Queue: 4 jobs
Job 1
Amino acid sequence: MGNKYLVEECFFLTPRDVGRRFDRIRKLGTNILEGRDDISYWFDDMSEPTCLFVSVDGHEPQKFIWEPVELTFGEAAYFHCGCGYKARKLYLLPSGNEFKCRKCHNLRYALSVLNSKSIAGRVIYRANRLHKLANSRACMGRIFYDGNFTKRFERFLGLCDKAGLEDIVRGANALKELVRG
Ligand SMILES: [Zn+2]
């Protein structure tokens, strides 16, 4: 069963998110991810980590090879996805509990499936402008949650409807169809 999620709908983890403590005090044991208290992580070795373990919502931890990269300023790293791909980002599906690379999760980019001139494309661009958001990821996050409109976006559509902006409402519904595949 292939899923139809968009990159923009998924939470993602970067080496920075978990490695930030590295130039300061490395905390032994389990860390809780900032802003996501359902995600915990730890390393095999604090001084020279080679593996990162991540557990979502108390599920069996996933193990990722951690490959540090020397940079002029600071430290960077890759995760190795289970498929072997060296990833800068590992994605979590909405209400999922496994981090994987974009390919393994079969994620598409919204802007690659949306023609900016289509009705669905226009609604994204317009919503972006209206919300004064810097990027479509933030925008999509506010539009969809798990294939449905967020409450916030439903309210926004209600206002559009009242204001006679039917094309936005139509476009949003076309977009939802697209996201659900
Ligand atoms: Zn992968």
Job 2
Amino acid sequence: MQTANITNNDSLNVRLNANRNFGTLDFHAWVFHNCAFESGMDVLDVGCGNGKQVLEALRVLGSTGSVTALDISQDSVQQLRAATATASNLELVVADMREVGRLIVDTFRVKSYDLAQATYALFYGVEHVKILEAMRKSLKPQGRLLVTTPLGPNGLRQLVNRLGFPTPELAQIDNFGSNVLEPYFRSFFDQVDIQIRRNLLRLPSVEAVRELYRSTAYHFEEAEPALLRFVAAEIEARGFFAFEKNAYMIQGSNPSSV
Ligand SMILES: C[S@@+](CC[C@H](N)C(=O)[O-])C[C@H]1O[C@@H](n2cnc3c(N)ncnc32)[C@H](O)[C@@H]1O
């Protein structure tokens, strides 16, 4: 039986902590650098979670500009609300990202953005192109659309599959990546920047792997014993268990011609 919940805030925190503690890539620094938040910017964050990018945006923007953000997880939004109670330039809603176009038109105070971004979230959205369309159409003339997403294969998930636990219900997530993003960005933007970052997670203990595995969307209780036996043998032999969990980023803009 699959037990993990992708929108669960505790699971999200476990995954974020594992990346921070055991990954070779400083993921958030990379994303922040490319978001290039600047004072006065209006930012849209789709699938904001508990606010990694929102908090950084607000820190840079101060009281200028605005952040408009949505996530389907009530827990994550609540946590972010508690952390940003004093920010009057933040509009934060619990919503399905498939509704982002309608929300921009009907609900959000700020309706056009210098940056519309989704970090590790758009692949959950099912109607990817509809969401991309809504984000793109909300851009100011020289605004940027930025999507960061996992670059498969995920080594831990591959191992779980190899151990006999395929994850077909994630097919719609698997079907999203450069195959959808590149044609879309190439159709609409004069300038398209693509980056790939390798990220090697090196976990030092069986407990750390168990906790991380339980926070994933491909967690199966039945797979745990075999996985953890494999992991224990790796740690015994090498001192750690390592797998790749790489990242892909695409950014589009229409800078005025020079
Ligand atoms: C991996 S987290 C990323 C959160 C944040 N952007 C970050 O980088 O820390 C993915 C987020 O997408 C949200 N999500 C999943 N499906 C969604 C949907 N249909 N609409 C809006 N948010 C969704 C989850 O609740 C989760 O907070």
Job 3
Amino acid sequence: MKISVQPKLIKWITFGEKIAAIAIFPFILLAHHKYQENKVLINHEKIHLRQQLELGILLFYIWYGLEYIIRLIQFKNKHIAYLNISFEREAFKNDENLEYLSKRKLFSFTNYLRVK
Ligand SMILES: [Zn+2]
């Protein structure tokens, strides 16, 4: 894992969306230096790196994109759709627990597929 501050690259990847960070194995890209101190944000992105590894990286992005489209149809709202992608639900639920990745079971994101 390597952390790199890349505001322009992030904007390009996300089509200009204002986001703080993105995980692209094996990198965590940050939009600003200040985020390097944000342990919860870094942990969130580390959870995504683990998910990416489990799915052989490429399948993660395909699944992420497809699930986003499904959630968009379901919720008709970009932000709510994003928050309900299983990978995001797992990451947001556990990013404040800095010990989470040391205890996490394989393919745990599948526990978050079903939106309650
Ligand atoms: Zn996320």
Job 4
Amino acid sequence: MPDHPSAYKATWNHLAATEESALMHVAGYTDPEKIKEATDITLMWLRKCLGIHPMDTYLEIGCGVGRVGQALAPQVHRWIGCDVSEAMLGYAKNRLASHNNVDLVPINGFDLSPIPDASVDAVYCTVVFMHLQEWDRFNYVREAYRILKPGGRFFCDNANLDSDIGWQVFMASAAIPPEERPPHISRCSTEPEIRTYLIRAGFQDVQTQFAGVWVMGWGVKSFPSFP
Ligand SMILES: C[S@@+](CC[C@H](N)C(=O)[O-])C[C@H]1O[C@@H](n2cnc3c(N)ncnc32)[C@H](O)[C@@H]1O
């Protein structure tokens, strides 16, 4: 786990030194069929929790090689992929080359400063929180709130500590001596943690759900109320 947000960049550029290594660290396999199966499940959750509409501008925090963007870009007005790793974004650029409604944006590992306030309709962050320190998870939730238009939707997930597989992930990490822990080691969340981030960031209609190892949370940015 990097000590400082800037260390995320070096860590993930290194993990993405080859396309095979990038895919292994994004998905755990390189088989296109298995990647498509996993992506279909991600899209199913986005459709259920946020909705996917043709006029939406969608943004992914930690987009990796563009696994989700490849399937989502044809269904929305604009898809923006943000990632701390320029190497990951390079693979995403190739994967998404046939789409003319895609922007790929390098970020600093901490915030979404290149993205203007109230400029997107939906933001999601999947399979990323496990690699972030808690403060950085929350900061991305807060940043998602900032860049969403009123009425905009946000989704995030993490491995759930309070599940059997989540506990296995926890114990596998616990077995690694402290001095040997890799900087991208997986760290789980709990449902109250995810719910707290969404509520503290200001989201309304906050909901959470469990599925297998995952805990997911989503909410809506409310419209300003006028006296
Ligand atoms: C396991 S991959 C998941 C990629 C993508 N979300 C997917 O599901 O296919 C984690 C991604 O998060 C990115 N990442 C790691 N730390 C980050 C940070 N602090 N800020 C933004 N992206 C980060 C990595 O570069 C990598 O692309």
